[in-house]
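2024-03-11 09:14:02 INFO worker-7 job=invfold-0412 stage=load source=structure_tokens
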């Protein structure tokens, strides 16, 4: 028998999305065609200048370790991009380049949390936040959002009530996976108000910042004011904005002392984000604007198509997504838990999507559909769902 494993590590479960994808693989192996609304990943390639820059970096022999904070030219480009796009006034010293925002969030949780600390995780929310908190031995306190006109909205009073003497941080995600919401300034202020009253950190995941379709642009938490910025750490990446998921490049923006600590932990984790990719990322910020605008245009058409198709299905109500590439319709409560509905849609209609219940109990009657897939697949998937739903209650 082997010796015991870490208790914190074992407290973390597997991912619903990965589990469902494996089921879909098995069905595909039997010859079924599956329409995949599950995956949270752009179906575009990285911009051509980024791919060219990566090849050049390899040819130029750039495959060495670099400073754990990240390449200085890249951090300067990031600072300029954040100033231009989100009104942030940050120095390169406040930026730490990481392997994706997964990498950043994992540094952040380890930098901020000790065992038994509590972290408020707003639900419905992206599952890995909970896992990352639990890996540090800290506790997750799920706080459900409220709802207004079928949309999930931040409820400051619920957050306030969830705070205890052990609370250390609040996790906030805008634009929001899975709800497709872009948080309004007032909602961000409700979060920062709680954080200020109880001296908490705000962990702001802004990975979908460039995928906003409404008139109200993405507001970065750190842009609210200097006091909020002093207790906010942002995790973000190039994965969604520049279609670079597998390249694994992200960054954190933090007050100076925390940024230095994040860099120190990075050094003992991955040492540095891949050097070749850091050189390539320079081309993302400096030469890819047109390509990103074209992707955005395509996503906007898809979100209209998916929301209008879903709204034609009796028992399904889908608010128009404001940002991200997720539609998050509510389904009739009579149909039972979304996990069963998602399972049946996969088996009976060959449509892969994610049950709302995997983002917390507040969304057990929702489904998440990624529209990072072609318009023709969206149309085919909607037809399949229209034929299959409603399921008879058994
Ligand atoms: N945050 C959110 C809300 C996400 O949906 C994802 C990926 O799906 C990530 C972070 C992690 O992305 P990456 O590590 O590729 O930046």
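2024-03-11 09:14:09 INFO worker-7 stage=emit residues=394
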């Amino acid at each position: 028998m082997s010796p015991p494993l870490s208790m914190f590590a074992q407290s973390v479960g597997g991912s619903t999305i990965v589990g469902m994808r494996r089921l879909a693989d098995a069905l595909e192996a039997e010859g079924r065609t599956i329409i995949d609304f599950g995956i949270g990943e752009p179906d575009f390639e990285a911009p051509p200048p980024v791919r060219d820059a990566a090849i050049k970096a390899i040819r130029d022999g750039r495959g060495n370790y670099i400073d754990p904070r990240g390449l200085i030219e890249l951090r300067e480009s990031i600072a300029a991009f954040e100033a231009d796009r989100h009104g942030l006034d940050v120095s390169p010293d406040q930026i730490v380049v990481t392997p994706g925002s997964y990498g950043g969030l994992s540094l952040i949780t380890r930098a901020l949390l000790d065992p038994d600390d509590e972290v408020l995780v707003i639900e419905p929310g992206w599952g890995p936040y909970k896992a990352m908190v639990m890996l540090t031995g800290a506790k997750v306190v799920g706080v459900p959002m409220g709802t207004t006109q079928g949309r999930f909205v931040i409820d400051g009073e619920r957050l306030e009530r969830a705070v205890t003497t052990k609370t250390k941080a609040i996790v906030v995600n805008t634009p929001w996976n899975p709800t497709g919401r872009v948080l309004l300034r007032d909602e961000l202020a409700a979060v920062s108000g709680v954080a200020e009253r109880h001296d908490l950190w705000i962990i702001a995941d802004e990975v979908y910042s460039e995928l906003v379709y409404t008139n109200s642009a993405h507001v970065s938490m750190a842009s609210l004011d200097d006091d909020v910025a002093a207790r906010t750490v942002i995790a973000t990446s190039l994965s969604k904005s520049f279609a670079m998921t597998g390249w694994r490049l992200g960054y954190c923006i933090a007050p100076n002392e925390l940024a230095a600590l994040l860099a120190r932990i990075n050094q003992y984790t991955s040492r540095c984000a891949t050097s070749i990719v850091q050189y390539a990322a320079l081309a993302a910020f400096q030469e890819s604007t047109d390509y990103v605008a074209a992707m955005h245009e395509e996503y906007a058409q898809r979100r209209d198509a998916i929301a209008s198709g879903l709204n034609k299905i009796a028992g399904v109500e889908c608010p128009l997504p404001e940002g991200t590439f997720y539609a998050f319709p509510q389904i009739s409560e009579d149909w039972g838990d979304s996990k069963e509905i998602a399972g049946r849609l996969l088996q009976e209609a060959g449509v892969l999507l994610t049950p709302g219940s995997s983002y917390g109990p507040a969304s057990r009657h929702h489904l998440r559909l990624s529209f990072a897939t072609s318009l023709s697949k969206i149309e085919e998937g909607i037809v399949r769902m229209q034929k299959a739903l409603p399921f008879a209650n058994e």
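2024-03-11 09:14:09 INFO worker-7 stage=report msg="The pocket of pyridoxal-5'-phosphate is lined by residues 40, 100-102, 126, 173, 177, 205, 207, 237, 239, 245, 250 (CB under 6 Å)."
2024-03-11 09:14:10 INFO worker-7 job finished
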